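ok, trying the design again with the full structure, not the truncated one.
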């Protein structure tokens, strides 16, 4: 490959900062060490593939969208809903345009297209990825609540109310009916509580 990949290398380091970028809304629920944006994005991508498959959409494309859905937060940080009330929201397309400067066109245009598709919310895969974002927050809330953070209920309720697909709503029902360690009990052959 003869193209200069320096800007891609820089972005890969930049993307790594999401491993240390905390999801700030959880601090309001009392969570001292909340999940990182990268942790959230990984499970969101997994959930997006599940929802998309159940909805008859392309699971790979939904997961691809979910992987990139918060990459702009390397430049803006994770601004929670209260913070957005006081600060204008950064346009993800503008942030992305800055992030991809100097990248090979085939890569830059792919990233731009992914972010635009996610933000437009009009493809089945984007709808599934956006539902995955909300369902991941709901699941994380259930886990935090099980750890003793009672205030996480607000995030559980808000996330539940924002789901749009039939599959995401059904998955939310299943999550809310299960315990956060039921998977471990099942794997060990124990009876559920």
């Amino acid at each position: 490959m003869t193209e200069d990949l320096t800007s891609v290398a820089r972005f890969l380091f930049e993307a790594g900062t999401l491993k240390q970028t905390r999801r700030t809304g959880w601090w309001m629920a009392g969570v001292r060490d909340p999940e990182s944006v990268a942790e959230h994005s990984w499970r969101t991508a997994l959930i997006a593939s599940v929802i998309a498959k159940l909805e008859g959409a392309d699971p790979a494309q939904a997961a691809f969208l979910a992987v990139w859905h918060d990459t702009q937060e390397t430049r803006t940080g994770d601004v929670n809903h209260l913070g957005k009330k006081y600060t204008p929201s950064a346009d993800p397309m503008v942030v992305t345009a800055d992030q991809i400067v100097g990248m090979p066109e085939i890569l830059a245009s792919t990233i731009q297209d992914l972010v635009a598709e996610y933000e437009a919310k009009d493809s089945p895969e984007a709808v599934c990825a956006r539902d995955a974002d909300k369902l991941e927050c709901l699941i994380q809330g259930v886990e935090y609540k099980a750890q003793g953070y009672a205030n996480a209920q607000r995030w559980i309720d808000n996330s539940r109310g924002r789901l749009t697909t039939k599959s995401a709503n059904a998955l939310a029902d299943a999550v809310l009916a299960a315990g956060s360690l039921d998977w471990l009990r099942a794997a060990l052959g124990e009876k559920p509580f």
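Keeping the full-length input from now on. Residues 124-146 form the longest helix (23 residues).
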